[in-house]
Amino acid sequence: MRLSQIIANLLNNAAKYTDQGGRICLRAERDGNDALIVVEDNGRGISQDMLPRIFDLFAQAAQTSNMAQGGIGIGLTLVRGLVEMQGGSVEAQSAGPGQGSVFTVRLPLLLAPALPEPPAPFLGPADVPALERRRVLVVDDNVDAAEGLSMLLDLLGMEVRTAHDGASGLKAAAEFTPGLVLLDIGMPDMDGYELARRLRAAHGAQCPTLVVVSGWGQPEDRQRSMDAGVDAHLVKPVGLEQLQEVLKLVQ
Prior knowledge:
This protein is 34% helix and 21% strand. The chain has eight helices and nine strands. Strands 6-5-7-8-9 form a five-stranded parallel sheet, with helices on both faces. Strands 1-2-4-3 form a four-stranded antiparallel sheet, covered by helices on one side. A hairpin with a 7-residue loop joins strand 3 and strand 4 (101-108). Helix 1 (2-16) packs antiparallel against helix 2 (75-85) and helix 5 runs parallel beside helix 6. The protein starts with a helix and ends with a helix.
């Protein structure tokens, strides 16, 4: 099932950035003790400055108005998360805009044991199973962004609920009793700073861990988060590794 999700997301990404009449190639091969899955297209390509960020959450190259599909760059982040949980890696290559793209997934093969004993089941990276299941509330007026974070948290085994404004966030926090609240700053009715202050006032010592996830990351933004009682301030795009570290902070 996970392998299907990986390939589907890579093919969907290739289709999104390849014009009608273009070519998309999917192939698999063996490279030593690894299996390689390669998705190659002759589409719009990736600029060199974008390549290092292509798997980051919400990272997305500039679009043109005649693009068949939009999106906010969640699919490739999920690909990386799924691949790494299987002990593999994924990389992107492109000669630049208009030169197409190549995405290569590398996964370890299950080798036959030297002795006739069944191999131990592969559990993925050691830190992923160690994460306890937590209740996480995501508050963001951008519905797509909230759903993207929810998908990643679900991938990490968390129980997730979303809210899309400050008032709904307060109500959800009271009903859902999360251990962690991920909140955006720029919301129309009540910004993230005010939401954090109200959560602190409402829950006191039992307040969940509060983490800002925002595109605002200047020193003054971080200071305002600290003044509002926020425990950590993350700047978009946020990767799986950062989410894992934040989850470890939850008591």
